[in-house]
Every structure is written in C-alpha cells, then in structure tokens.
Amino acid sequence: MRISAAVVAVIVLVAVGVCRAEVYRYTDSKGELHFVDDISKVPKKYRKQAGNTESQGNVSVMDATPTSASPQGRTAQEPPKQQITSSGSANVEVFITSWCGYCKKMVRFLNEKGIPYTAYDIEKDSVAARTYRELGGNGVPVVRVGSHVVHGYSPEAVMSYYNEGK
Question: Domain containing 146 — which CATH number?
C-alpha cells in the first residue's frame, strides 16, 4: 500500500511539472509567429523579443503581424466602416475568433493574396460581435467584401467578390 501511494505521489509531481512547462513565442523576419517550449530552440537573433506566453496572458496566432498586408486596427467603440481602399477595391472585413482554425486559414489566405483587410475578434470586441450578428453570423469566419457577405471558409467566393470590387 505504501509503495502504490509513493508511485501515485511521483506521478502527480511529474504531471504537475509537465503542466507547468513554459512556452515562448517570437516572430521571425518573415513575420511568422513561432511557439517553442524551450528558450534554446529560439534562434539567437530572436531571443531578445522571445517572451514567455504565461507572462503575456492569452496568446493567439491572430496577434501575429500579417506577412503581406497588415490589418487596420480600431478600438471597440468605433463601428466597422464600409470603405473603399486606396486601390479602389472593396473593403474586406473578417470576423473571427482566436481559436478557429478556419479563421486562421482565411487570414493566411488574405495575407498570401496581398488583400488588405481588417480582422475583428468577435469574442473580444462587443461592437464587432454585434455587427457579426447583424450580418447573420452563425459560425466563423464571416467575411464582408464590400456589400457582399461570405459565411465560412470560402476563399473562392472572397476572391470573386474582391475582384468584382476592383
């Protein structure tokens, strides 16, 4: 009986140690966000910027700077705006959540195509959440391209509406 209690105690201590593993994040020269579990895995030139995610609160891939186009930010009090960008193409707004894989794919797609967009996290921004509901949001991502709304991950539809607005 004493042996099994000792074994359980060792397992619990090991589990607690594993659960408290540190995670570091850094952004490379291409703008890609990386997460590693050991500071020695961070290239030396990025170690100064590498931070422990525990001290940074919740971290999301959506926090990374896009590689091709940077989303324009706004405060929670500003309503989403219907604008035409300087190139004359339709404004693109993406309503997302930080945990959604298809949202990340949509943002990656927009970055790869060089399409300027504004991303709104509907879980962190009450104005964006209200706009999302007004657009008939019932899942994420929801993309508004000019006056057109695309529900779900559909890069073909987004490209079609974006090219139509040029």
Answer: 3.40.30.10
Give the pLDDT confidence of 56-109 residue by residue, as tens digits.
444 444 444 443 333 444 444 444 443 333 344 569 999 999 999 999 999 999
Cβ atoms of 47 and 91 closer than 8 Å: no
What's the CA gap between 26 and 152, in Å, rounded?
29
Indicate yes or no: pTM above 0.70: no
Residue type, 78: E
pLDDT in tens, 141-151: 999 999 999 99
Cα–Cα distance, 102 to 33 (Å, whole number): 17
Q: Which of 9, 36, 59 is the last residue of a domain?
A: 59
